[in-house]
Amino acid sequence: MFDETHILRLLFVINSTKGKPELQSKAFQCTQNLVSTHQHLIVRIIDSPSADNLIASIGDCQAILHDAINERKYTVAISCAKLLYTISHIALASRDRNAMDIDVPIISRLHQTVNEVIDALSTGINNLIKSTRFGSTPKLLCGTYNAKLKELLKMKARYCTLLNEWDFEASFKEAYQTLLLANDEVAAILLPYLTFLLQQCRQVPSWLAESVTDKLKEGMNKSSMFINLVKLLLHTSSTEELTAKVISLLHVYGSWDDTNEMFTSNCWNIYLISLEAGRRGWFALMQAIVRSLFKKVQSEESAYWLRALGSLAYAETQVPNNIGTVTANIVDSVTKHYVMTLEALKALNGLGKETSVQLYFVEMRMEMNVIIQLALSTLNMDTNDDTALIRQSRWMQECADRFRNLAIRFNLSEQPVEVDDKEILHVLATYNTCILACEYAARSFAASNNLFFCVNPTLIPILMDDRVDDDSTSNLRESNLMKICRKFVKTVAEWEKVSGLESNQRHEQRSQHMKTALEAILRTPFILPKAFFKCSGRMPIPKLKHTC
């Protein structure tokens, strides 16, 4: 039977193993797999007298890591770092949150280990970047070194998340300065790392937008650097002023032709930027780019694809702009552009291109927005008498029914194609929760003494969640939409607990709560997974004129 003694013995053996780096690396990999499979054994060791032996093994493993970094044996260093991360992650995740670190010596030791490993990984990362920057690495080894650099950055990012007090903003600033000095290949590797750090920051650094726009002006001649900086900028919030600045810079980068209103160079790179803009919610930028690129397409399928993207971007820019002025004409105008998007995607289907996922997301977004607009119109009804209140309640009940039907149609079990993309599943789950939250609020608002309904099980974890919705304790990685929905559901759950208010005051309060939440949902940019914009395999690749 495999138990704690086997784990400790195995750690002792691999730390004593000397030989070829490949063999040593494989030994660490096998041990990591065993530790991952038997996590409960690590937890037992922590709470037993054998904890000292584990601490000793961790120290030996650390020494091997440092030696491997200094000797540039990066394969061994990466495997060793992964093993240490697995042990640290299991131990720190299992600790009693109410206990002080001093009460559990191994936890305090692990925090020290994590900090020391981060320092060691930083040394390895800096060495690799310097080697590529100053040309001291043979060309044949550059590809290998870049792969090692990518792995070291991944490991450093993971280790940083183990420390609650880690300063992600400082790490982001340091990595950003490195990006500015790196060559194109290293910059491309650093971008995902920077993106991860930015997502962990509690707020976007105030200096980022201005710094990136200044660097973009200097980097017009380095396409890779220009594209990477724009992609990084798109992780910030879109504003009219910032969008105008980016468009102005793109005009220079793409040699804008004022007469024909189109780009004449770097069109493909600008097209890639438009896709990233759509993925990050910069739909005004996406629309401006796609509209100009439409004049450069050479194939029918490319025209349909860009038309679909352009119509979707236009619809998304109009939704938040028209909040508070909901009229039938405005709703019809926005819906018309969603329909145009669907028609273009269906035309692509007719040309043999698979667009089921795109159709699925656009249909969901269109129908959800229409129902939310209907609910807002219902909330704005005059309710001066009992008859009007009954009518409003009946209409809100109809909105709730439509939300429920939408949630049933667009749940994870009703996907149009086999999907194993975690991001797609996450986005679908987020919108499903959002729709169910709207249904819950609509039914609660319309509730009367003779009406009973069950809360959807999907919302129960939110209702049971005791977390305080405080921006100071959140990070950018958490979806803004989920934060809105969590707050919305909890607010609705508190309605029945409110006392001391007259009936009309309660009605007005609930109405205002719903308006605030529904408008916030409409203002949240459409969340689209990367696969929506994928232009390889079954997805169309726009063919642009060679002059571009």
Automatic annotation (TrEMBL):
Record-level GO BP terms: snRNA 3'-end processing
Residue ranges occupied by any Integrator complex subunit 7 helical bundle domain in the UniProt entry: 287-382
Domain of life: Eukaryota
InterPro entries linked to this entry: INTS7, INTS7_HB
GO cellular component: integrator complex
Pfam families xref list: INTS7_HB
Protein name: Integrator complex subunit 7 helical bundle domain-containing protein
Organism of origin: Rhizopus microsporus var. microsporus
